[in-house]
Automatic annotation (TrEMBL):
Keyword annotations of the record: 4Fe-4S, Iron, Iron-sulfur, Metal-binding, Pyridoxal phosphate, S-adenosyl-L-methionine
Transmembrane segments: none
Needed cofactors: pyridoxal 5'-phosphate
Biological classification of the source: Bacteria, Bacillati, Actinomycetota, Actinomycetes, Pseudonocardiales
Keyword Repeat: no
Protein name: KamA family protein
Superkingdom assignment: Bacteria
Gene Ontology molecular functions: 4 iron, 4 sulfur cluster binding; catalytic activity; metal ion binding
InterPro entries named in the record: Aldolase_TIM, Lys_aminomutase/Glu_NH3_mut, rSAM, rSAM_sf
Organism: Kibdelosporangium aridum
Length: 444
């Protein structure tokens, strides 16, 4: 392992900043009273967290509020809609009234999209397993309880419900014991995605207590770690006290013969422009892990082709693999951030055409929806009209994976449920897409 030395000036300690530090942030960066008030209002409903690294390195304060990184991390007026924002302002000062209204608004924001709570929770000895989801035959998602926060929060986060302090909305497992027992009973599961939140908020010791038991399960071949820490707190791999230990932990996983995939979330090329972020990726790669990159296309943040082409080129230059461009999920402030599918596929293709072959590993736009991952391959015009060409990239029902189908073209549709399937769509795909999925709800 090559340990790159890094200047001591960058040995910052992580300190989360949220609504309580908003006045300090406003004063330091000159936010207007209107913007500050809007952040305070909306962050009662949606989680808000930043840190000094993102504040100092990722936001262009001369371009606020339009700056894409400011939009990415700071709750904004308009995210909840005028009616809810007016009501929230009206109950200001009434704690019980605010709490009740906040809960009502959250419940309407589809906190668990794609049937996560009803369809994906596996069972062991007749009971649901906490902190585990099993949607696709080969892959389970594991949510370590101590990893259910992030170094900063994205305003578009589809897991926002994990961060709002409501136990009913949260997936989390204190220990991996039940997961391990479940995996022993289900040798079809070859991949475990450790996710959150962000597992990299945990100390190395804690992370090891969740990862190492997985190495005792022979059928597990790939361990994926979903993280945005190379973008939001790259110190985690470079200058944190246990940064070297985490690299040694990764090396142990790789030495066990497993594929270690770090699923890095980069939303904008600016996140890869700092020396620290590139050093983080380089150090992760030095362990034998492979860094795959993914993010959704979000209005106001990255909904233009040049941004994606720059991002994918920067990922490739850092030795990482451009992997997925997702469609923003139908949860949280979806109305504020959504990009119509017609626009998303046009921008994806425009960006893709600008890439060298090695960066064309990226796929998209992809909707991670209830029946599975649906990719929009393009738009075709036929004598019968215009259609979206769609394909099940991954499916809850494995027999659907890889199969194409079509939906009527719509300039405004922004999610699978907005689409009308063409009559030629195979019956089993139509049944899955129209809401009769066959759940993977295995029990042991
Ligand atoms: S890093 Fe991921 S889990 Fe954390 S807030 Fe952003 S999108 Fe959500």
């Amino acid at each position: 392992m090559v340990l790159t030395a890094f200047p001591s000036a960058d040995t910052a300690r992580f300190r989360a900043k949220g609504p309580r530090q908003l006045d300090e942030i406003s004063a330091r960066y000159g936010l207007t009273p209107e913007i500050t008030t809007a952040i305070r209002l909306i962050s009662q409903v949606l989680p808000f967290r930043v840190n000094d690294y993102v504040l100092e390195n990722l936001i262009d304060w001369g371009d606020v509020p339009a700056d894409p990184m400011f939009q990415l991390m700071f709750p904004q007026g308009g995210m909840l809609g005028p009616e809810d924002e007016r009501r929230l302002a009206k109950v200001a000062g009434d704690r019980a009234g605010t709490r009740e209204l906040v809960n009502r608004i959250r419940a309407r924001l589809n906190p668990h999209p794609s049937g996560q709570k009803q369809l994906n929770v596996p069972r062991l000895h007749g009971s649901d397993i906490a902190g585990v989801q099993h949607k696709y035959r080969e892959t389970v998602l594991y949510f370590p309880g101590q990893g259910q926060s992030c170094h900063a929060y994205c305003t578009y986060c589809f897991r926002w419900a994990q961060f709002v302090g409501d136990a009913d909305l949260r997936f989390a497992a204190a220990r991996p014991d039940e997961l391990i027992e479940y995996l022993h009973c289900h040798p079809d599961v070859t991949d475990v995605l450790v996710t959150g939140g962000d597992p990299m908020v945990m100390s190395t010791e804690r992370l090891a207590s969740h990862l190492m038991p997985l190495l005792a399960v022979e059928s597990v071949q790939t361990i994926r770690i979903g993280t945005k820490s190379p973008a939001y707190w790259p110190h985690r791999f470079v200058t944190d006290n246990d940064a070297d230990d985490v690299l040694r932990l990764f090396e142990s996983v790789v030495r066990s013969g497993r594929h270690l995939a770090v699923m890095a979330h980069f939303s904008h090329p600016r996140e890869l422009r700092t020396d620290l972020a590139r050093a983080a990726v380089s150090r992760i790669r030095s362990t034998g892990a492979v860094v795959y990159c993914q993010a959704p296309m979000i209005a106001r943040v990255n909904d233009d082709a040049a941004t994606w082409a720059q991002l994918w080129r920067a990922e490739l230059a850092a030795g990482a693999v451009p992997y997925y461009l997702f469609v923003e999920r139908d949860t949280g402030p979806h109305e504020y951030f959504k990009v119509p599918l017609a626009k998303a596929v046009r921008l994806f293709q425009e960006a893709y055409r600008q890439l060298p072959g090695l960066a064309r590993t990226v796929r998209g736009p992809v909707m991670s929806a209830t029946p599975g991952k649906v990719i929009i391959d393009g738009v075709e015009t036929t004598p019968r009209g215009r259609f979206f060409q769609l394909r099940m990239l991954q499916a809850r029902d494995p027999s659907l994976a890889g199969r194409p189908f079509r939906a009527l073209y719509s300039p405004s549709a922004a999610w699978l449920t907005d689409l009308q399937l063409d009559l030629t769509a195979p019956q089993d795909i139509a049944a899955a897409v129209l809401g009769r999925p066959s759940p993977v709800r295995a029990s042991a």
